[in-house]
Amino acid sequence: MYLAIQAVRQGALISVQLLCRVAKIPRSSYYKWLNRKPSLRELENEQLAQAMLVLHEEVRGIFGYRRMALHLRRMRKQKLNKKRVQRLMRIEGIQSVIRRKKKKYTPSTPQHTAENLLARKFHAETPNEKWLTDVTEFKYGSQKAYLSAVLDLHDNTIVSHVLGHSNNNNLVFETVETALQTTPDRKPMLHSDRGFQYTSSKFKELFGAKLTQSMSRVGKCIDNGPMESFWGTLKSERYYLNVYNTYDELKRDIDDYIHFYNYERLQAKLNGLSPMEFRTKAV
Predict the structure, then answer these.
(1) What are 163-186's pLDDT values in tens digits?
(2) What are the residue boundaries of the Integrase catalytic domain, all occurrences included (predicted)?
(3) 13: domain range?
């Protein structure tokens, strides 16, 4: 109410006495409010709000209040209640721009299948113990591109990723081979859906001795839940917010986002660390 009186008074030649009479408040109360000094809490909230606006702009508006709170705690080195952050974001009109789209699935005829060894146990004690992998589709201009990636369940790090023009064996084989090169002394479990690349005889021939295969059950995308979650995060926090006219534009932005995801995007379930920070501490 006091702010409204102040705003109207500044914009028009209307007396404070008349405005207070309309608002049904004593004129003395308005002047008491006008001359008061802001509390330390209010000053701190103003600083927080400014930090939020800057961070919101830097990350292109992708943070909701939970992730905003994580990053503000790191930046300001202080404890912050996420409900306080949510309230200040609402006051400042800061809102996540995330949108989500559903994924389409294409059935395939497998040459080789594996049991669901992962069995939705989405936790790994050490790096390179359990990997997830999948391929997802993107559009640029009137054409399509396909992204293959390997995610480590220990720390949610994207171990390797390859963008290509075709959803073929070479795309997947290059992704897996690149991931294996980062850990030559381990034999990780690799969980995937039953896409034609993972069920092919060639995949078994190339990687059968280097990893243990696990596969989702037919029609059960939740069996590969964390991988699906990453695709949703990548698309909602970067891809859906932009229009790509060329393959190079798309590739540059995907590479940039995955670097941001691995090294800068803090996660509550990783004790407020980024995936690479958590991975480095484990090593």
Answers:
(1) 999 999 999 999 999 999 999 899
(2) 123-283
(3) 1-35
